[in-house]
Sequence to fold (537 residues):
Amino acid sequence: MKKSFAVFLKRNLAFANLAIVTNLEYRLNYFIDALVQPILTTGIEILLWIAVFKGAHSTTIAGFSENSYLSYALWSAFFSRIVTSWMYEFRMIEEVSSGTINSLIVRPMTFYEYYLSQLMGYKFVTTIISLTIPVIASFFFDLPTILSRLPLATLLAFYYLILVHTISFIISSMAFHFTKISSMTVAKNLFMWIMTGELFPLDILPPYWKTIIGGLPFASGVFVPVAYITGRVGIRTVYSGFISVTIGIIVLNIIGAYMWKKGIDSYVGTGA
Amino acid sequence: MIFTIKKYALLYAAMFKASFIADLEYRANFFSRIMTDVFWYVAQVLTFEVLYQHTEKIGDWNKYEMRVFLGLLFVIDAFYMIIIHENLENISEKVRKGDLDLLLAKPVNSQFMLTLQKANTAIFGNLLLGSGWLFYSLMHLPDFNYLRLLWLIILIPCSLCVVYSMRFMFSATAVIFTRSENLQFLWWQVYRLGMSPDSMYNPYIKYAILTVIPVGVIVSIPARALLNPPNLNYLLWPLILAPILIYGTHRFWNFALKFYSSASS
Fold:
């Protein structure tokens, strides 16, 4: 038992390492993903909030100051880069729909863990590089930030990544049955764009919607960790986030396992 | 000259027809595309509707004007998605797989082929949806003069030229760098600057997005043409800018091709 776990761990570390090496191979690509994109997003969001406060003629909106919103905009852009999966989901779908999955399913590992470890490895490096920007910017512009809360917030974001990966797994399982499934990835990511709190802090929503959207696990991707760092919510919300993500992971894994089994049963390897 | 235009028009008509037939093969795709973009429309509308709960104006736009702005954004984006998007999205893959060689070998302009080979007719539903939102927004404007819609006949093609030119330059970098997927995602961030009204930005940024990185021209100018009395200086700018940018893409494509080493050889 102990030995098999060691083998499992070693194998998955190798996958994570593979992802890091592969992505760092194209440094310009990586640099844009980890730094340039979130910096631009932050810039646009900050300009939007400055315009909103200018029009509102008020020092606070929903009880929070302009600086609080600027801090939220800064951190949310970087957290959303961490918790979004485009590249690996497209690759997973491509593996299934093109038939190259043949070479993976005969190996002593699961498709799920192979890509989860790669995703985690990639996001680990991205996190280290990306988060230096908001940390420095918070100091420089004196924005409301509680840096001691950063480790727990990052942990929640990484835990949420398992949920994100499970959704990717479900969508790639659908590729066994449907062609052109990649549009589902776009739809799903746009849906999560709304639900995670990347667009705006979820606490400015009308109370009814705030309760519903805040109770879903998606809020733990961006809103909960960023609101925790910027002092909008306390530790209880983070605990609730961990619980709702856990429930989400369990439910979605059951669905994913069922769909994968159905897909594999109907799959005919074409020798690709 | 006329013969050349006719040849390219016929070629485009044939490619459009072929695309439509190919799209009909995947009928469910018409619905999935609408569903996908509905989330995007909802995200845009929701963001501003929520913000307007807390403020009366963003920049110098009120809620009803912002709805018109978003309606125009949806319509222009739908046209772009139908005619151009899929082609430019695939340039990187064509370069890597060596498919670009086949286009370069054809007796037609390679930029024309690369840009217009495939129309995404599944987006027509989105165009209807976007137009519906635009008209709904216009109906809520007091005393709107519907004759102003005629401006769109000139300004929407200009907007498409601007958005095409900028997107093309991002996509064509794939020929230089071979792998530039994230540079394509970078385009999305630049495009987002134009997805908010120009007056939202400070004067320097506003000037930049109307001139140096002209994403502000794409929606803000047509929206102003609908909402405000015509300002000819403002309205002439897209007419001047569009041909300049199209020529710029032609030069940039020729420059990029110098870096191309066939992937299939």
Notes: The mean pLDDT of chain B is 87. The interface with chain A takes residues 26, 28-29, 32-33, 35-36, 39-40, 42-43, 46-47, 50-51, 53-59, 177, 179-183, 185-186, 189-190, 192-193, 196, 200-202, 205 of chain B (CB under 8 Å). DSSP finds twelve helices and no strands in chain B. Residues 3 and 9 of chain B are 10 Å apart (CA to CA).
